[in-house]
């Protein structure tokens, strides 16, 4: 039995390859470069662990990412257009990348050859682990028998609920990428001050600063608790995940503490999935991003 429609996402979704295959999701990878010349396909030419290891080993070297090309998307769309399978393509927030424009251009090219093809491109307005959760919600709708049109409509309804609450190891990479001023970065390095950041509706917002990793990690959890406290929905209506960078051990400890704290605060949660944040965002945060993604479930 063929699927009612197929789901494609750019590599910003940071879904583990095995999980993407299991859920029948096609991922179109981003590229990453350490020398501005040689660009490698993420998860194909370079693994995420290798990417972070190079950042740790080559301190002061700032890698860059590059979006999927029009041709990359065209090659992803064509097989489904040829066999009449509709496609929902979910792309990283347009505030961070031109990936969605590549997908739209590829769609136009494919429609010239297959005018009846159904390809809907969605701006996720989020990225990284949260984008992965959003893509999994699309798969849940498909696998529960929702139609192509109803799935698109429901995905548009829930995306505004997405939030990322996270911190980073230091301000150096944010400074290099122009996300914060040099003065703030110097102050951060001298005083061990680190930012707590919220991403919502496609943009990042400062949510405070503090000293040390433990305190900023705790503040990210406080932001999650505040979000849940302001919601009229129970925690069972949300998909929550933890994202980490270089250190899986730190990510797992952060996740386990979050599960314990949520339970003591009256939010019964059995487990929270743990995903590695990919190069698309890692080039901006450095090797040590850590935080939560949360979005309303499509079905609850």
Question: Can you describe this structure in just a few lines?
Answer:
By secondary structure, the protein is α/β, with parallel strands linked by helices. 43% of the residues lie in helices and 22% in strands.
Explain what the structure shows.
The chain contains eleven helices and 13 strands. It is α/β, with parallel strands linked by helices and 300 residues long. The chain has a six-stranded mixed β-sheet with strand order 10-9-8-13-11-12, with helices on both faces. It is globular, with a radius of gyration of 19 Å. The mean pLDDT is 92.
- The tally of helices reads 11
Mean pLDDT: 92
Instruction: Tell me the helix content.
Output: 40-55%
Strand content: 15-25%
Q: Keywords, please?
A:
300 residues; alpha/beta; 6-stranded mixed beta sheet; 11 helices; 13 strands; 43% helix; globular
Topology at a glance:
Elements: E1 6-10, H1 17-22, E2 25-28, E3 31-33, E4 40-41, H2 48-57, E5 64-66, H3 70-82, E6 87-91, H4 99-113, E7 119-123, H5 128-143, H6 148-158, E8 163-167, H7 172-176, H8 182-191, E9 193-200, E10 203-211, H9 213-230, E11 238-244, H10 248-264, E12 274-276, H11 279-285, E13 290-296
Parallel strand pairs: 1-2, 1-6, 6-7, 11-12
Antiparallel strand pairs: 3-4, 3-5, 8-9, 8-13, 9-10, 11-13
Helix pairs in contact: 3-4, 5-6
């Amino acid at each position: 039995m063929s699927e009612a429609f197929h789901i494609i996402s750019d590599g910003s979704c940071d879904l583990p390859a095995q999980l993407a295959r299991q859920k029948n999701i096609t991922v179109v990878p981003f590229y990453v470069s350490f020398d501005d010349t040689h660009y490698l396909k993420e998860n194909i030419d370079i693994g995420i662990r290798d990417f972070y290891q190079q950042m740790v080993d080559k301190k002061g070297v700032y890698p860059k990412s590059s979006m999927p090309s029009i041709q990359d998307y065209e090659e992803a769309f064509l097989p489904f257009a040829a066999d009449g399978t509709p496609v929902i393509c979910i792309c990283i927030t347009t505030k961070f990348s031109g990936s969605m424009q590549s997908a739209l251009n590829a769609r136009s090219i494919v429609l010239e050859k297959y005018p009846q093809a159904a390809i809907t491109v969605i701006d996720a307005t989020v990225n990284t682990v949260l984008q992965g959760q959003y893509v999994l919600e699309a798969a849940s709708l498909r696998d529960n028998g929702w139609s192509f049109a109803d799935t698109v409509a429901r995905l548009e309804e829930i995306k505004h609920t997405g939030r990322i609450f996270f911190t980073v190891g230091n301000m150096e990479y944010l400074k290099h990428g122009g996300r914060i001023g040099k003065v703030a970065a110097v102050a951060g390095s001298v005083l061990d001050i680190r930012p707590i950041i919220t991403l919502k509706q496609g943009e990042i917002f400062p949510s405070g600063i503090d000293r040390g990793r433990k305190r900023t990690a705790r503040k990210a959890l406080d932001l999650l608790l505040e979000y849940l406290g302001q919601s009229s929905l129970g925690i069972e209506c949300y998909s929550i995940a933890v994202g980490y960078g270089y250190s899986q051990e730190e990510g797992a400890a952060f996740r386990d503490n979050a599960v314990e704290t949520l339970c003591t605060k009256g939010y019964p949660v059995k487990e929270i999935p743990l995903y590695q944040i990919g190069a698309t965002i890692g080039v901006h945060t450095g090797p040590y991003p850590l935080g939560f993604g949360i979005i309303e479930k499509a079905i609850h």
